[in-house]
Design brief:
By secondary structure, this protein is of the alpha+beta class. It has 17 helices and 22 strands. The strands form six sheets. Strands 10-11-12-16-17-22 form a six-stranded mixed beta sheet, with helices on both faces. Strands 14-15-13-21-18 form a five-stranded antiparallel beta sheet. Strands 7-6-8-9 form a four-stranded antiparallel beta sheet. α3 (72-84) packs antiparallel against α4 (92-104), α11 packs parallel to α12 (332-342) and α12 packs parallel to α15 (421-429).
Length: 524
């Protein structure tokens, strides 16, 4: 027994030493990995070529809509063009720029390029550098007589009294607004030929400046041509925004804790949920507005919808505005559920929904490939066309809700950020008499999209990631396949004065429709 105890003690000591060595190796490895990352690192052409081959092969093997809006000949041309750019060493941002340009040619809004995890970790802690100072709102230019507008919405140089909110920009550093937008559009992915989503993407805070700098580079000064409030064309030279100088200019401030108590974790969760979904009712005018910024999971939308439509019924609400302008999609289950509270007829999610491939020779580069492969294996069926169809959504008609069904007038606000599942929602209700879509064309395609299961694919050398949709979804085969989004029945575009006043022009237009409807009902 003594020998056994002694032997066991020796084993424990050895195990302890081995565990210590393992931890030392792990920590050393982690430490050296962090130290080795450099934002200025350049990857040799052969490394870039290897990653690019993986990128192209993944798209050609798995993407169900690769040639949906771009012919194979054209896509091959862009793939070859991208490879030809890899004849010199490049940094990760430079390589991402090439990948983004080629990816945008797929014309799929769900297929986008993302930084590596190492780059994201670096950017989270890196000191902000110099930045293009202006944020913009852009729209129009869809017809020869429709002038495209580029209007300032924010200026980081706070002392600039000229280029304030509502100032119309005509050119920057000698480049016309049309040339600038056309150049930036080439790097933005969208469904089909949809320009509304691209305009809105550039209008999202910070993206215009970021993409402008990525394409044209940073400048110490910018020569800006603008139109003043009298309509006169003028020029001004403005400096680049320097966060370091701005911080120094403000001086130091003594931090004083707030006298108000900090919100509890439960209150913080509720605040986060309310930023995504919120119902506001005006019981005196029998109207309500539902903000829905996402159909994603984690926001308890099932309970929210039940309580909301119960409250609408209880309070005699007759006019409901549903705001989808910031809704980029999410769970089809959630978008289907709210549709059932409004639809007056059975509806389908899709006429067809299928994947082109089950397994993959590139599996090690695809996130959750094992589970996605199992899903395709057990929940789809290979048809005569050679594709793996999810038959349930192709066959099943969802019936309207009986309890708390809303039968009043519904106004759905849409725009370039309305994407994916929000497009399914709008499509299902578009032809219903008591539903009116107000605003702009949806960012998501009206005919369909490539989406549903969308894992990240990671390139082995640089770690750059891109979203890789596995299913093609055709919403309604009778819808024209023209590369457009769901069109509004009442178009509501801003004016320069709307931007200057920060007016919510789409809500203002909708309230006019509600007043007109109520007056019409009274007359009858």
């Amino acid at each position: 027994n003594q020998r056994m105890i002694s032997k066991q003690g020796a084993v424990n000591k050895i195990a302890g030493v081995m565990a210590g060595l393992f931890m030392l190796m792990l920590l050393t490895g982690c430490g050296s990995g962090r130290a080795s990352f450099s934002a200025s690192r350049k990857y040799a052409p052969d490394i870039l070529q290897k990653d690019y081959q993986v990128y192209r092969s993944l798209l050609e093997t798995h993407h169900p809509g690769l040639y949906w809006y771009t012919s194979k000949d054209s896509m091959d041309y862009f793939f070859n063009w991208g490879r030809q750019q890899l004849n010199d060493s490049l940094t990760e941002p430079q390589f991402r720029k090439i990948l983004s340009y080629v990816t945008a040619k797929v014309n799929c809004g769900h297929t986008t390029v993302r930084p590596s995890k190492a780059w994201n970790k670096y950017s989270d802690t890196a000191r902000l550098g110099k930045m293009f100072p202006l944020s913009m709102k852009l729209w129009g230019g869809n017809t020869p007589n429709d002038e495209m507008k580029m209007v300032v919405t924010a200026n980081l140089n706070r002392r600039d009294s000229i280029l304030r909110r509502g100032t119309e920009i005509l050119s920057i550093n000698g480049r016309s607004k049309e040339l600038i937008v056309d150049s930036l559009f080439s790097f933005i992915s969208t469904d089909g030929y949809n320009s509304t989503h691209k305009f809105q993407s550039l209008s999202n805070r910070g993206l215009f400046g970021s993409l402008y700098t990525n394409i044209f580079g940073i400048s110490e000064k910018y020569q800006v041509e603008y139109r003043d409030s009298s309509g006169t064309t003028r020029q001004i030279i403005i400096p680049v925004y320097n966060p370091a100088a701005d911080t120094v200019g403000r001086g130091t401030r003594t931090f004083r804790p707030s006298s108000q108590s900090q919100p509890t974790k439960k209150q913080q969760r509720e605040l986060r949920k309310n930023s995504i979904r919120l119902l506001r009712m005006d019981t005196a005018n029998h109207s309500a507005m539902m903000d829905l910024a996402s159909f994603g999971k984690g926001y308890n939308l099932k309970k929210f919808f039940h309580q909301s439509f119960e409250a609408l019924e209880k309070n005699g609400i007759t006019h409901l505005i549903i705001d989808l302008r910031s809704n980029g999609g999410g769970s089809v289950t959630n978008s289907t559920l709210i549709t059932r509270y409004i639809a007056n007829h059975p509806f389908k999610i899709a006429d067809s929904l299928y994947a082109v491939k089950k397994g993959s020779p590139w599996a090690r580069y695809i996130q959750d490939h094992f589970w996605n492969k199992l899903f395709i294996k057990f929940f789809t069926k290979k048809r005569a066309d050679g594709y793996y169809h999810f038959g349930y959504f192709e066959r099943h008609a969802f019936k309207p809700k009986k309890n708390h069904h809303f039968d009043g007038q519904v106004y759905i606000l849409t725009g370039g950020n309305s994407f994916s599942a929000s497009t399914l929602f709008a499509s299902a209700l578009l032809k219903q008499d008591n539903v009116t879509i107000v605003g702009e064309e949806t960012g998501g395609g009206a005919y369909g999209n490539s989406a549903w299961l969308i894992p990240d694919a990671t390139l082995p050398e640089t770690g750059i990631r891109f979203r890789l949709p596995l299913f093609r979804l055709v919403i309604d085969k009778n819808t024209p396949k023209n590369g457009k989004g769901v069109q509004p029945e009442v178009l509501a575009l801003p004016t320069v004065d709307d931007i200057r006043k920060n007016a919510d022009f789409k809500v203002i237009r909708t309230m006019e429709l509600i007043r007109n409807h109520k007056e019409g009902v009274k007359k009858n």
